[in-house]
Amino acid sequence: PPVLSDLGYVPPDGGWGWAVVFGASISIGFAFTFPKAFTIYFKEIQAFFNISYSQIAWTTSIMCATTYGGGPISSILVNRYGSRPVVMFGGLLCGVGMISAAFCTSILQLYICVGFITGFGLALNLQPSVIIIGKYFLKRRPIANGLAMAGSPVMLCTLAPLNQFLFDNFGWRGSFLILGAILLNCCVAGALFRPIGPGTAPVKTQVTEEGKDALKGKITEDGPMENKTEEEGEKDCFEKVNQYLDFSLFKHRGFLIYLIGNVLMFLGFFAPIVFLAPYAKHTGIDEYSAAFLLSILAIVDMVARPTTGIVANSRWVRPRIQYFFSFAIAFNGACHLLCPLASSYTGLIVYSSFFGLAFGMVCAMLFETLMDLVGAARFTSAVGLVTIAECCTILLGPPIGGILIDTFGDYKYMFIKCGAVMVLAGTFLFIMNYYNYRMLAKEEKERKAKEEDPKSVRTENEGKKNWNKDSIQDGPELEPLKEKREGLKKEMNGT
């Protein structure tokens, strides 16, 4: 279908939008990378508090769960206040959480400061940064999304050695203080998110329910919500939530297909990254060479994301971007299925290169395909609902892989599981998107046939005339004439 804007205005597709992309790459980079880079401090913290590895590992698990689980809250705040203040507040929370963590005296306090406070701050950075891109870009949106998502591998290559340097020179407490100050740069990134819309009026989308003619809610895309109606006080709790989070998306066929496919995909998406270095050590490779595999993956990923955005923006791929996304997921799964065949270090380098390419392709289109399905106006609510659903499978993926490794004593079963799940998810998305496009074409054909049918048009016009006639006659200013007409009818009936 042709690319159209449902925001009520035409996005500029450039200009200040490139500054917004730069700020989004910083916020997205911190949100995706910080939980991974934080693992450098595990060994020292574990020894300091005298706790087990599983206890310290809960820190990043809680942080990731809060980052994804806070998606709906982040979406509600963006709908209410706009992207700029939400990201700036999220950066402040990240800084406060890490600075407070430097003074923790127990692992429980670390869970609260790093897991919940910093994790929620990262949630307030992730969703608004993705949402604001859809407001500034339309024709070049896949390129902008690819460049913004490239902030994650760039930040990973930067934060990992930086954390090691800080730890060697300042210890974990001093490092947390410095990291808290670095995370405050998210406030600077959020300041670049200048509000945009049709003039000064906020964009509002009406959400209707079946069997109801009343307005259910309004979604304000940028800036605070104004002109509140007098009926707001009479709305029930669900309607007030629906005012900022569009639950009618669960009736959207394309959204449900995307949601099911992505929840399935995340069961095998992150586990191979977690276990790549341990698998290399298990095959007899030294730890420095094993760590270099992750560097290869990050470098290829860094190049793959913007390149995928450019390819996805081409006139051949853009109309079929859902199929391209399905192929990227299946390609990712195929890499994992072939990984057990790589027994030598050269084979693992080849696997890491292809894995980085496939991983970058999926990440570059992860949010672009959702925006393509639901539109930019409803994307704010959609991304919040998707992240809360993905939260469970993101947490379950690595532990299930660990159970397989403990059970069979071999890493290949974990890679086979991840590969099979991702190939299944890619196949599901391909088939269901084909079905969705066929149904959309059929519905569009029926709509055009109905519009071209003169009988249906005449009936519709007559209905409109009758409605207008009744509404005019029932007006309050013509009430005396109405009463007089009813009296005449009664007299005629009596005669």
Automatic annotation (TrEMBL):
Biased composition (Basic and acidic residues): 444-472, 479-495
GO annotation, cellular component aspect: basolateral plasma membrane
UniProt topology in membrane: Multi-pass membrane protein
Key words of the record: Cell membrane, Membrane, Symport, Transmembrane, Transmembrane helix, Transport
Superkingdom as given in the UniProt entry: Eukaryota
PROSITE patterns the record matches: MFS
GO molecular function: monocarboxylic acid transmembrane transporter activity; symporter activity
InterPro entries in UniProt: MCT, MFS, MFS_dom, MFS_trans_sf, Proton-linked_MCT
Compartment(s) where it occurs, according to its Swiss-Prot or TrEMBL record: Basolateral cell membrane
Domain Major facilitator superfamily (MFS) profile: 17-437
Region ranges (Disordered): 444-495
The keyword Transcription is annotated on this UniProt entry: no
Keyword match Cell membrane: yes
Reaction catalysis annotation: 4-methyl-2-oxopentanoate(out) + H(+)(out) = 4-methyl-2-oxopentanoate(in) + H(+)(in); 3-methyl-2-oxobutanoate(out) + H(+)(out) = 3-methyl-2-oxobutanoate(in) + H(+)(in)
Transmembrane segments: 15-35, 89-122, 143-162, 174-193, 255-276, 288-304, 324-343, 349-367, 379-401, 413-435
Stored NCBIfam families: 2A0113 (TIGR00892)
Family: Belongs to the major facilitator superfamily. Monocarboxylate porter (TC 2.A.1.13) family.
Protein name per the record: MOT2 protein
Organism: Agelaius phoeniceus
Encoding gene per record: Slc16a7_1
